Amino acid sequence: MKKIIYTILIGTIVLGGAIYLLLSNKKQNQQETALITQKNDAISVKVDTVKRITPQLSYSSNGTFKPEQELIVTPETSGTILKIMVKEGDQVRKGQTLAYLKKDQVKVSYQNANANYENALENYERYQRAYKTGGVTQEQLEQMKLQLDNAKSSLENANLDIEDTRIKASINGVINKKFVETGAVVNTGTSLFEIVDITTLKLRVSVPELQVSNIRAGQEAQIQLNVYPDTTFTGSVSFVAAKADGSLNFPVEITLQNSQVHPIKAGMYATAIFNFSSEEIHPIRVISRNAFTEGLGESDVFVVKNNQVHLQKVRTGRNLNNQVEILDGLQVGDVVVTSGQINLEDQSAIQIIQ
């Protein structure tokens, strides 16, 4: 009898232990399943940390140099090129003769105009003498004076035509291109020479709206060229566009006096650096621009806390290339979502990926 009771007691203990183990395993399995489910429900995101930096108040933009003055020389009258006095690469001065046109026909016109003027002058002097003796009336004298004035005007025009057969430079510069040869027949508007003056150069660059408000005419700009890597040039802002171009950037021109030691050619590629002056530069808090998306307001970001995100309103300041200044709402060290926001809402579970 005692043996039977002992056997039953042992069996009860074993059965209870088995049941306890089954229940423990079930609870553990449920916890593991919940953890896996939670991980599967978590949204993968990339993050960045709010940092404190000292901003570099400058902006750079690339462009190419253009001459301050360039001109296509055209003749004032039609004719045939008689002689060319310059070649490509020659330095010329304003008023210097570049070429001559044949002036045979123009010369004949000048001789006729001169003869008409001499005849009109002689007639007018004769009428003056006759008027003093009563031989002609005041009206006849005035009519002869009008003829003299017309003849003089025709002579002056003929003299200008003679002068126009001499093609002259109207600016200082270099003959960059010669378009004609001796013997060519040209008309008014025919391109003869291209003159380029590179004693002063212009560098045109494009500046986005976020920086253009800091640029003023007369402001200095540093200029760097690949051909002179160890030299920095200094120019002056001469023009800031009042209207943006098609790409929503603002054209800005910088004027630079050419250097004899390091001569610059029109068309050379250069980088302009605008240093924005500040009396005192303080460290600022910044986050990646990617923390703001089109799906959020410009002052809303997702902040990560305990594997969850919380929608946080912030007050922003300046845009510094790919970073945004934070004035209020975040502290240094806060972690914000920079990729994956489209799938998030307030208190969403997240999983950070690299």
UniProtKB/TrEMBL annotation:
Transmembrane segments: 5-23
Subcellular locations according to the entry: Cell envelope
One annotated GO molecular function: efflux transmembrane transporter activity
Coiled-coil blocks: 103-168
Entry keyword annotation includes Ligase: no
Domain Multidrug resistance protein MdtA-like barrel-sandwich hybrid: 73-196
Main location: other
Keyword field contains Acyltransferase: no
Every CusB-like beta-barrel domain range: 203-274
Gene Ontology cellular component annotations, sorted alphabetically: efflux pump complex
Key words of the record: Coiled coil, Membrane, Transmembrane, Transmembrane helix, Transport
Family membership noted in the UniProt record: Belongs to the membrane fusion protein (MFP) (TC 8.A.1) family.
Protein name per Swiss-Prot or TrEMBL: Efflux transporter periplasmic adaptor subunit
Species assigned in the record: Zunongwangia profunda
